[in-house]
Input
Amino acid sequence: MITVWGRRNSMNVQKVMWTLGELQLDYVRHDMGGSFGTTDEYVAMNPNAVVPTIHDDANDLTLYESNACVRYLAGQYGSGTLLPDDAAQAALGDQWMDWQCSALSPSFFLIFFNMIRVPADKRQDAQVERGVKETARLLAQLDAQLADRDYIMGDRLTMADIPIGAIMYRYFSLDIDRPALPGVDAWYARLCERPSYQKHVMIPFGSNVEEWQREEERNAGVQ
Output
């Protein structure tokens, strides 16, 4: 059994939940973070007081940092599927996961934070514009990788797809200009056909901070 602490509409939590779904692992999720707050017990597990945190009963392991959780689950339960058998391919997949953290997420956050997570009177349009341009530039790199591949590492989903793919539902749902990127577009369409992606990532998040709050509350307790 895998225990997950984290609110369902957190993108970082969605990475973990999607991974669990693809691996068909038993889990239980507890609401934590955001409007649900944190507890002293939670901070004792994760001193950063952010989500997600997981516990794997099989190894008595408590782990936080979303991409680390995805790597662990892929290595422990998805060797040969989510985690490529070939060491070089696994390393390249790991590279794309770090690219999500270091490059893609900071640029996309400028868009999402200003359009969804803050009140309209605090929105900084210059940041949105910068984020849109930088995100498009970065996704062109991903598009080149996907030019002759169904998924980032080849013909099947791996751990490399999950952190980046978790962003894509929000990216394609926002009212912004997006360049034509045929590889990315086709890859995203494939993700949208996956039941675990539909269940854990394609969750309505609203169009402003008030709707975001309502959606977070609506997802309370949903597994």
User: Anything to note?
Assistant: The radius of gyration is 17 Å.
